[in-house]
Specification:
heterodimer, A: alpha/beta, Rossmann fold, nine-stranded mixed sheet, 5 helices, 11 strands, globular, B: Mth169, Chain: A, 3 strands, elongated
Chain lengths: 225, 80
Amino acid sequence: MSARVGVITFPGSLDDRDAARAVRLADAEPVSLWHAEADLLGVDAVILPGGFSYGDYLRAGAIARFAPLMEKLVAAAGDGLPVLGICNGFQVLCESHLLPGALTRNAGLHFVCRSQRLRIENAGTAWTQDYEEGQEVVVPVKNMDGCYVADRATLDELESTGRVVARYLDVNPNGSLNDIAGICNEAGNVVGLMPHPEHAVEALTGPSTEGLGFFTSAVKKLVQS
Amino acid sequence: MARFIVDVMLKPEILDSQGQAVARALPRLGFEGVTGVRQGKRFEIEVEGPADEAATERVRKMAETLLANPVIETFELRAE
């Protein structure tokens, strides 16, 4: 039986279909989850997709955090459910305090959309096990509020405990501290990533297919367990 | 009816790129002598009943929960 990976749709989510497609290409079954239903439908993992939930009103991810489904998700993440937040999903995870720090307006103030080289810094998380530590991948980055910030103590802790999952190479597109593109929680089951691996899973539409590893990592882990 | 004002500002150590952009635009418009701009948000909250301690506490809770993100922002609250 294939793994079932939930993709949450909030009002204003944009990349839920691409995330579901990436799940399918990783040989798992995508399950659509609606933000207003307080039921995770027994899925084995969850993806919070990119977009502009609630129009990014107030702060990116601030209102989505209080969706009925999020309460269930926070509890399930605490119990070890693999959760990947991409772009707006990363913002929601920070607002939910599942991940430390916050994402603020890009330092350059412009929306940035480009193919971005990243280095996978931690290949031990639920979502990066199919990569090698130090592996470089190219995936799209496209965001308005992608500048990762945290206080010095939090940054030091993330760095010293290997919780920086991916880092920007060549260009820092949004001013993120320490060139941070993605981080994880202590247990490594919750990962937030500003760039979009779900847009780099097929040669026809992506700059590479190097994003697929995030999805196959989680699926492989689920099949093993 | 009571009316409260909540001002939310980025913490001083957080880069305020929007405030910086405003600061850069002002001299171009002939406004000299501006040494810094920080941009924030102002909320005007109207609640039923008097502006007593209980109402103030409720609005404080709103600010802590939703209006401000304590990781990057501070807020000031006052009754008007």
